[in-house]
Amino acid sequence: MSDKESYGSVSLVRQGDFRFYSFTMPTDVLAETCYVVNRDEDPIEGFQRELDTKRATEIAHYIDSGLGTIPSSIVLSAQEGSEFHYDSKNKSVSFLNINKAFLIIDGQHRVYGFKLAKTALRIPVVVYENLSKRDESRLFIDINSKQKGVPTELLLDIKKMAEYENDTEQYLRELFDTFSTENDSALYNRLSASKRDKGKITRAVFNTAVKPLVKVFGNKNADEIYEIFNSYLIAFNEGILVPHQLEEQAFNTTVFKAISGFFPIITARVKDRFGAIYSVDNYYEFTEITGQRIKPAKLASPTNAYKPIVDHLEESLKQEFTL
Residues near 304 by Cβ (< 8 Å), separated by ≥ 6? Predict the structure, then answer.
């Protein structure tokens, strides 16, 4: 016969037509008694997303680091076989320690992370009882559609304060901040650090576009790269965008990624002809020719894929060569 688990200091909460119980449970018990049904395993009754083992492993490492704290509650639905019972007099709950005592409504990756972790913790849980399959699926939808995640832009913006930045993130932050504050910046007043803003490049987009270039930047510091990359952006604008009245497209996400992707290609030409003198004029030697040969529609009406634009820019640049 299965052992019974019992926990005190339980709060009964009523919200609308539902009631649930809030208390803490050891992670090892949580891992033993909870389960998930996803759509692949059961197309009829399953509703959970597929488990991301990488994410769960990261949670386990976070817990085992000794600094991990996860205060948000795991949301569970007590199943019939659990014999879940609330004792109002003692403000306690009891249930059978069986494999499928609780269905996870929210928190499957955290629970799996707890199972992988070597460190045991007590975790806050919220347990609903007497839910139908319809109630469980609707609760899952409500939790995952009504809650709004923290924007990536804000997380990146506060990583410095949290001292979570790696070397590349620090480098990109310094470069982004320089482009934000320098008056001669091609991106001056067109960057948004912590939120999405129409017509501006966010920190997240900037990082995605520029990160592949870090290896090209070599050992140059952020100030040196600012001078070079800014010269390129100015020349790209004057040689390619302005003649076709496409200046605003520089702040389209796809086009900005394409502009960044074109940087190593055109910079190799500049270095080959002028040495390591990356001035606006030297870049303009190539952007002007490229601008004369591009199909403006490629930049005016981009899809979500930026690499075809880079390929088109490169093809246009190659036509420049003559004996």
Answer: 254
> Phi and psi at residue 143, in whole multiples of 5°?
-65, -40
Lookup: tokens for 107: 């928190």
Sheet holding 18-26, edge to edge: 11-15, 18-26, 122-128, 74-78, 102-106, 34-35
| 3-state SS assignment for residue 156 | helix
| Per-residue tokens: 136 | 């469980």
Q: What Å distances lie between residue 277 and 36, 244, 267, 281, CA to CA?
A: 60, 27, 10, 10
Residue corresponding to tokens 């030297």: 282
Measured CA angle at 260 (ends 256, 261), to 5 deg? 115
Q: For residue 47, which phi and psi values (nearest 5 degrees)?
A: -145, -10
Q: Would you state the pLDDT for residue 43? A: 37
Q: How far apart are CA 19 and CA 270, in angstroms?
A: 69
Nearest-angstrom CA–CA distance, 213 and 288: 23
Instruction: Flag residues of the chain having pLDDT under 50.
Output: 1, 39-48, 323
- Angle CA(149)–CA(17)–CA(133) in degrees, nearest 5? 70
Q: Concatenated DSSP letters for 214-265?
A: HHHHTT--HHHHHHHHHHHHHHHIIIIIGGGT-GGGGGSHHHHHHHHHHHHH
Strand, coil or helix: what is 88?
Answer: coil
Look up residue 287 and give its two tokens.
């952007």
Q: What type of residue sits at position 291?
A: G
Contact between 161 and 193 under an 8 Å Cβ cutoff? The reply is: no
pTM for the model stands at: 0.61
- How far apart CA 183 and CA 181 sit, in angstroms, is 6
Only one residue has tokens 């910046």, namely 185
Residue with tokens 């996400």: 253
Q: What is the pLDDT of residue 45?
A: 42
- Domain boundary assignment for the chain: 4-146, 152-318
Is 251:190 a contact under the CB 8 Å cutoff? Answer: yes
Q: How many CB atoms lie within 10 A of CB 127?
A: 24
